[in-house]
């Protein structure tokens, strides 16, 4: 288990997994959560500014969160505290293989929970060509190492 004390700042960490985006999943997620033609209709998507089917913002966020949980050693996370600066840089298309890279920007002890610390991170989702697709900053409450 990775505790607050084990987390270094200003070091890039890549999640070990990757995720292949499929047309069926883009359509399913888009139909349920963001029914825009470029998410749900391959023919209409060809006429959009994207020139084809692309994953919705909620889909990319879900992939990013899922990839964050693929680390071999889980983090002693208590809860997410917030997400800011969500930015979509490039579309994710069917067949794209996405991976996650994160960097802890800063950390501090919690003023209200002495058994926890707060980390702020910048996470980036990149495609198979290492092109930045989606990025955000977040804060999370992380347990401190138990006293021996």
Descriptive report:
The longest helix is centred in the middle third of the chain and has 12 residues, at 57-68. A hairpin with a 5-residue loop joins strand 5 and strand 6 (132-143). Strands 1, 2, 3, 4, 5 and 6 form a 6-stranded antiparallel β-sheet that branches. 22% of the residues lie in helices and 36% in strands. 25% of the residues are buried. It is of the alpha+beta class. The protein contains 4 helices and 6 strands, in the order E-E-H-H-H-H-E-E-E-E. The chain has one domain: Roll (Thiol Ester Dehydrase, Chain A). It is elongated. The model has no long low-confidence stretch (mean pLDDT 94).
What is Rg? 17 Å
Uncertain runs with pLDDT below 50, 5 residues or more?
none
What pattern of helices and strands is seen along the backbone? Answer: EEHHHHEEEE
Instruction: Name the CATH class.
Output: Alpha Beta
Shape by Cα distribution: elongated
Number of strands: 6
Q: Major β-sheet, in short?
A: 6 strands, antiparallel
Distance between the termini: 15 Å
């Amino acid at each position: 288990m990775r505790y607050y004390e084990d987390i270094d700042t200003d070091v890039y960490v890549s999640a070990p997994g990757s995720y292949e985006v499929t047309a069926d999943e883009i359509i399913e997620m888009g139909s349920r959560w963001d029914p825009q033609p470029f998410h749900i209709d391959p023919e209409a998507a060809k006429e959009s500014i994207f020139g084809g089917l692309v994953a919705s913002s909620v889909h990319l966020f879900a992939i990013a969160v899922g990839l964050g949980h693929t680390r071999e050693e889980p983090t002693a996370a208590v809860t997410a505290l917030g997400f800011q600066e969500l930015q979509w840089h490039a579309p994710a298309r069917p067949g794209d293989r996405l991976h996650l890279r994160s960097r802890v920007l800063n950390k501090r002890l919690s003023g209200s929970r002495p058994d926890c610390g707060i980390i702020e991170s910048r996470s980036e989702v990149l495609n198979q060509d290492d092109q930045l697709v989606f990025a955000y900053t977040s804060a999370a409450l992380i347990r401190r190492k138990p006293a021996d």
